[in-house]
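Dear H.,

Thanks for agreeing to be a second pair of eyes. The structure we're designing against is below in token form, covering all 71 positions.
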């Protein structure tokens, strides 16, 4: 007698469901758009008042890359 599988979905579908669940969890952690902040940044960009801190940007990029490699 052969044991029945308890799996509901084929493996490919299970992988897709895991990916979908992961995406939904990340979406749930995404903050809402803060309209006042967007307006403020838009005005700064239009008037050339927005300055980028190159060191802070570089640190952020490096951190992002390192964490991406560690996953």
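And this is the sequence the design step returned. I haven't edited it by hand at all.
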């Amino acid at each position: 007698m052969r044991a029945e599988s308890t799996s509901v979905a084929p493996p490919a579908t299970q992988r897709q469901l895991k990916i979908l669940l992961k995406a939904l969890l990340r979406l749930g952690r995404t903050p809402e758009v803060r309209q006042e902040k967007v307006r403020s940044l838009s005005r700064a960009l239009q008037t050339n008042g927005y300055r980028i801190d190159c060191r802070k940007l570089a640190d952020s990029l490096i951190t992002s890359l390192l964490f991406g490699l560690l996953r």
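Two observations from my side: The chain has a mean pLDDT of 83. The first helix runs from residue 11 to 29.

Warmly,
E.
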